[in-house]
Structure formats: structure tokens, C-alpha cells
Amino acid sequence: MQSRAKKNKTIQINYLARVEGECALHIRMRDGQVADLRLEIFEPPRFFEAFLRGRDCREIPDLTARICGICPVAYQMSTVHAFERSFGISIDPAVRALRRLYFCGEWLESHSLHIHMLAAPDFLGCESVVTMAEKNRGAVERGLRIKKVGNAIVAALGGRSVHPVGACIGGFTRAPSRAQLSALREQLLKIRDDAIECVRWVSGFDLPDLSRDIEFVSLQHPDEYPMNEGRIVSNRGIDAPVDEFDNLFEEHQVPYSHALHCKVKGRGPYFLGPLARINLNFDRLGSDIIAIARETGISWPSSNPYDSIVARALEVLYAIDEAVRVIDHYEPPAAHAVSFEPRAGVGRAITEAPRGSLYHAFETDDRGLLRSVRIVPPTSQNQARIEADLRELAPELVEQPQPVATRMCEMAIRNYDPCISCSTHFLKLEIEKL
Amino acid sequence: MKPRVAVFKFASCDGCQLQFLNAENELLQLAQQIDFAYFPEARSRALDGPYDLSFVEGSITTPGDARRIAQVREQSRFLITIGACATAGGIQALRNWSDIEQYRGTVYPSPQFISTLSTSTPISEHVRVDFEIWGCPIDKQQLLTVVRSLLSKAQPVLPAFSVCMECKRRGNVCVVVARGEPCLGPVTRTGCGALCPSMNRGCYGCFGPANSQNMQSFTELLSRQGVVGDDAVRRLRGINGYVRAWRETADAIASEKK
To answer: Which end of chain A is more exposed for a tag (fewer CB within 10 A), N or C?
Structure first.
């Protein structure tokens, strides 16, 4: 009787905490097997793809930014690159470098927020960053220092850190002075040791092992760690230009979620984000960071989703070094933005948001007004992969009391640093005992 | 006992509640003065109400959320909206001019699974609001000012005059006068620090309408700059487009055209 009760169980988390946005999880087990598993994204849909139609292309970087308060830079960057490709605009090399700096700022801000405020409390048995600060104030202060510098970079280029206003098609509305950037360089050098300490700290966490045969996908660039451009690659043979996105992946709707699910056509779920980027671009991290990555004891490439937090910390370190490199080589561009004439056509772009590849496609008429819009955020692409991980975890969950099972599920989901506000077009945990 | 604070989310991008976590210098001190009893984005444990201060982010766009905001109001002594979505309906209020059935079909292949209202509306259309913080996103310093006032049991006050005043104070060159570029500054509330003109561009109104504004004079100015018809309508129907003064002006321009 008792063993039967163990084999049949329902886990229900009604509102997943410490993720950005609103979602729930429902798992029903029958005879030790997963009978039903639903990651329910009930964040209300906001219909960006619909109301952006008819708007002027020049307004779009300000509007797509509003999809996400955590990663507005990535939205602005996918947007401007899509239009620039459609209109045949080539940007100044200095602007290209500034956009890498802009991305470094967002990775620092978003990754340090996730590591210290959303994920680390799990590993230290705390319910929030506030209670974690009582136990380990040093680590929290370190995270806040890193985050602050990330926000300062975004603000230097965009005026403010949330919904910055400086990005535009063709460049920036204003290029920073060398003096402005040197001030940032000083701040970056001060947090470099913090970032190394952070890599060691997270790699010392008791990270579960859920190593699986996973398809990892990210951009890849011939010489650089990917941010703004590259080809779509995977560890299972995808190697294609960005324009092929729709031929490689398919989106489908599930009744319980406001975020569309994505799969590799003819295969299945895929994994985006820092772990995918590191796995596919390890040699582009530079020798210093490669040495630090090897010291963690993880054998790269890693197929364990729980190593994501270490990948994220390594990207924090990369972003610091890359930002310093950009600043050291900076000469202000001849013009802060290239002027352009809109034209009818289709533009597609992918950039690497903190959570993974973010796809935008816009079709414009000859006045630059939008005829159609497609936005595929990283969290909706990761959704099917998250469910696959939870399915693997489910038999272990049945053995655990509810609070432990809930925490295990939340940790598995947090590996992906899901951003639910973005994905709706995302969680509560429900494991049902029959 | 420390005041019990709650942070609620409706339809939004998370950017306004993020400003609590972006208070890198003040966050740990703030956490000593208040108890974040309910703040799911930052804390696993959710404590039941009632709450002394409730911060509400996001607009009302689903039947479920319309019921939830009423419960939030019942649980809250002092309710503060944070940001353009909660205060004005937000960018997603652009649906209010469209056919929602068509929208569902645009984004979702099986629209029947999506439960949504035909409008996105501010919190004040549903329940009594005690204080509104404008902006998309809200300004971190304004948020801290409001929290400090409330902690000392004073009525919070934020300036509501036009951002032009702040822009002059910053010594910016006027983008309208000097360059003839369209700028929503004259009718927009201060609070951002006159960010856009400082970044070499015109304001797009993310802090909403100033308390006194001359919309007729403003549309005449736009018209002299060649911003008429659909172009003028789009500029007003933006992040705060559903706010009455801007909505009525844009609707009038749109109907003139017809």
C-alpha cells in the first residue's frame, strides 16, 4: 500500500519563486512513471508581435526593449541588427566594438543578478538573498559590486540600465568619450578578482549531476566569443547562417503555456544559454579564462545542466576582460550612427541574450513601416529542454517530501535562468499524487 | 516591527521591480528597515497579508488578474503602482485600439488556449490607488524617495512638472529649437533626468504626461515640424499612449485624418 503511494504522486508548485516572471509546474506520477508534466507559463501575453505591426522601424528598438526589463540590451541589439541587414547598412567598426561593450554590461548585470540573488540561495539553504546576506554578506556584496559595474556600462552607452535609450539603427544616438570609458575601465579592473572568486565559489557548490545527451545551440563567430553575430551551430551538426532559423527550428503551442515550445526540426528539444555558448566556443574564451575554467574540475564541454551556474560565472569573467579590451582599443567613431533610408524587405538577426540566442525577423514596407514581426526569445526555446530535465528528475522527486521536491524542481528550472516575461508569447510546481 | 512590504506583478517586463534589486548601494540597508514579506522574484517564502506597503507592477489584461488585483487591494494598507504598465496600461495597451481576436491569431496558432481581456488597463481603473510612480522603467532614486517618505510616515511627493525644466537645468541644447526634431518633452513628466535629450535625441514620453500640458499647442508644434497624421498618432500612442490626455489627442488626430 505504502509503496503504491510512493509510486503515485503529484507535485504542484503554484508560483515559482526567484525566476523573472510567472510560471507554475505540475507533475503527475503514476506507478513511478511520469503520467503528466507541464511547465505552465501563465504570465499574461502582451502581444508584441501584433501591436508592432504598422509602427515605424526607428521606434522599434525602444519598443522591443520593453519585452524584458532584465535583458533590454539583447532585444535592442537583435532589433537593430535585423533592420541593418534588411536595409544594407554597414556600421562603423568602433560602433561594432561599442555594441560588444554594451552586451558585456548586460551579461555582467544579468548573470550576477542570477548567480547571487536567484540561484545561490538554493545552494546555501536560504530563501532569499536577504537571508543569504546574514550568513555570507561578503558573497552578496561581491555580487552587488559586479552587478553595479554591469549597470554602469549599460548606462554609459544607453543613459540608464533598464530600457536604455542610446541604441538606434545604424549605431548609437551618442558615442561615449574616451574619458568616460576610462572611468569604467577602473571599475572593471576592481571587480576582476571578485569575478575569479565567484567562479571558485560557485564551482564549490554541491552541484547535482544530470548529465544527458543534450543538443546545445548557440551562435559561433570565427574569431570571437559570440555576442552580436555569427552562424547558428550545435554539437549535433547544425552549422547554418541566421537566415536559416525557420528551416532549423519549429515552434508549436501547448495548451497549458503562454510561451510557444521550440524544437530542432526532426529531432527534439535544444539547450541555449551560457553553458551552450561555453561548450561550443570554449577555445574563444582566451587562455587565462580557459585555465580558470579547467581549475573548476568540470570537464568541458559539459553536458550537465547544473554546470550552467559555473558557465555563467565564467562569462562574467569573460565580459570583464572583453570590456577592458574594447575600452583599451577605443577610438570614437567618425559618426555615432550611419544615416539610412528604409526600404521594403525582410531582416533577420540573432544575438546572444544572457539566457541564449534571441531571434528577431521583421518585414518592412518601402516607408520602413512594419508589415510582420517574429520574435523568438531564448526562454521559450529552452522550455521543452527544461521539461525534458524535469522528466529525468521526476523518479527521484517521488521519494522526497514536498518542500524538497519543490526545491529540486526549482533548481533544475533555474539552470536555465528562465525569463518568463520575455517568453510569453512562461512557472508554478504541481506534482499530483494519485 | 518592520513594515511588511509586498511586490506584486501583473502584465509587465519585470523592469520596475528590478529597480529594488538594482539599488546595489541601498538594498541590504533597506532589507534591515523593511520586511519583504511577499516578493516572489527575490524570495522563495511567501508570507500572507495583510501588508503595510504593496508595490504593484504591471497592467490588468486577463479576467483572473482583474480578480487578483481586488484581493491585493484588500490585503494592502497603502498601494503604490510602479511604472507605466500599472499606472497607465503600458505599451501592451496598444491592443486597446485593435481587434484582440486578430491579435491572438497573430501570435498563437491555437488562440482558444489564451485567456485575455480585450484591453490592457491601469490598476486605478480597477481599485483605489494610494500613490503612483510613473516611468518606464521607474527611476530608482524616485522609488527610494517614496520608500523613505513612507517609512517616516510622510505622504510621498514626486515632481510632476514638464521634463523641459530638468532638461534646461542640465544645460542640454534643446532638440526642438536647435535641431527641429520632434520631442515629447514639453508634455512629459520629469523624473528620468532628461535622459533622451542628454543622449542626443528627442523624448518619447516614457514618464507619461506632466500635470499641466497644452496638448493643442503641442500638436501645433508637431505639425510645424511636419509630424502630422499617422506619424503624430504613433508618437502619442506609445508607452503611455492610453493615458487620457494623450489618448484623446491622438484619437482626435486619427479621426481628423478620416
So the answer is: N
Torsion sign (Cα): B147, B212, B136, B244: positive
Q: Which residue of A has its CA nearest to B27?
A: A130
Residue B42, pLDDT > 80, answer yes
Q: Do A68 and B15 touch (CB under 8 A)?
A: yes
How far is C-alpha A143 from the geometric centre of its chain's CA atoms?
Answer: 18
Residue in B with minimal Cα distance to A142: B24
Q: Which of A309, A269, A278, A342 is nearest to A59 (CA)?
A: A342
* Cell representation of residue A14: 503554484
A38: which chain B residues are within 8 Å (Cβ-Cβ)? none
Residue B137: cis peptide before it, omega within 30 degrees of 0: yes
- Would you state the torsion angle of the CA atoms of residues B27, B32, B34, B38, taken in this order, to the nearest 10 degrees? 70
Burial status of residue A433 (CB atoms within 10 A of its CB: 0-12, 13-18, 19 or more)? middle
Report whether the peptide linkage leading into residue A301 is cis, meaning its omega lies within 30 degrees of zero.
Answer: yes
B50: preceding bond cis by omega (within 30 degrees): yes
How far apart (Å, rounded) are the C-alpha atoms in residues B106 and B109? Answer: 8
Would you tell me how many other CB atoms lie within 10 Å of the CB of residue B155?
Answer: 8
User: How does pLDDT run across A374-398, given as a tens digit for each residue?
Assistant: 999 998 899 899 999 999 998 888 8
From chain B, the residues in CB contact with A133 under 8 A are 28, 31
Residue A168: its H or E element: strand A167-168
d(CA A125, CA A44): 31
pLDDT digits (tens, 9 = 90+) for A217-272: 999 999 999 999 999 999 999 999 999 999 999 988 777 777 778 899 999 999 99
Assess contact for B82 and B57: CB atoms under 8 A.
yes
User: Residue A15 and residue B46: Cβ atoms within 8 Å?
Assistant: yes
Paired with B189 in beta bridges are: B162
pTM of the entire predicted model: 0.94
- Cell numbers found for residue B64: 483572473
Q: Note whether A17 contacts B62, CB cutoff 8 Å.
A: no
**DSSP label at residue B3:** P
